[in-house]
Amino acid sequence: MEKSLFEQMGGKYERHGDYLLPCLTLPAEEKQPIGIWGQRHRRYLKEHHRILYYNLLTACKLNCYLADIDRQAEEMFSRLVKQMAEREGVTEELKAQDQLMWVGRMNNIRNRATEIVNKELIYR
User: Fold this and answer.
1) pLDDT band, very low/low/confident/very high, at 101 (cuts 50, 70, 90)
2) Which site in 20, 58, 72, 74 is 20 to 30 Å from 35, CA atoms measured?
3) Alpha carbon of 6 to those of 10, 26, 60: distances in Å?
4) Is the pTM of this model over 0.90?
């Protein structure tokens, strides 16, 4: 029997019952830590943009892509929190005078910054 194109190119088959299935493996992808922003974006891609998700996955670029999104989102979040706190006068001085007010205002700022990052980077 003549070899298939897959076998001619170095591919191998494995017998599973009555069937011969090709042995397919993906090249190893560099593992980078992915934070909460990257995990949220991965879930969004998997649910709403399946083609892009599987293209990145099969090209072994998903982990790098998500790590980059995570890094961008974290930088944007930190920058936004800092800018909003300065603009609204939420300082260490306020923290020393009225801790409860400072916590409330900082929570409000962090929630707004989270919404902005989600809209601009994560769920787009």
Assistant:
1) very high
2) 58
3) 7, 16, 21
4) no
Return the structure tokens found at 123. 């769920």
Give residue for tokens 């892009």. 52
Averaged over 82-108, what is the pLDDT? 96
User: DSSP secondary structure string, 43-63?
Assistant: HHHHHH-HHHHHHHHHTT-HH
Q: Are 122 and 69 in contact (CB under 8 A)?
A: yes
Phi, psi (rounded to 5 degrees) for 18: -90, 0
User: Measured between alpha carbons, how far is 56 from 26 in angstroms, rounded to an integer?
Assistant: 12
Identify whether the C-beta of residue 80 lies closer than 8 Å to the C-beta of residue 113.
yes
Residue 96 in this model has a pLDDT that exceeds 70: yes
> How confident is the model at residue 7, as a pLDDT?
78
Report how far residue 79's alpha carbon sits from residue 124's, in angstroms, rounded to the nearest whole number.
20
Q: Domain extents for the chain? A: 30-122
**Radius of gyration for the alpha carbons in the chain, expressed in angstroms and rounded:** 24
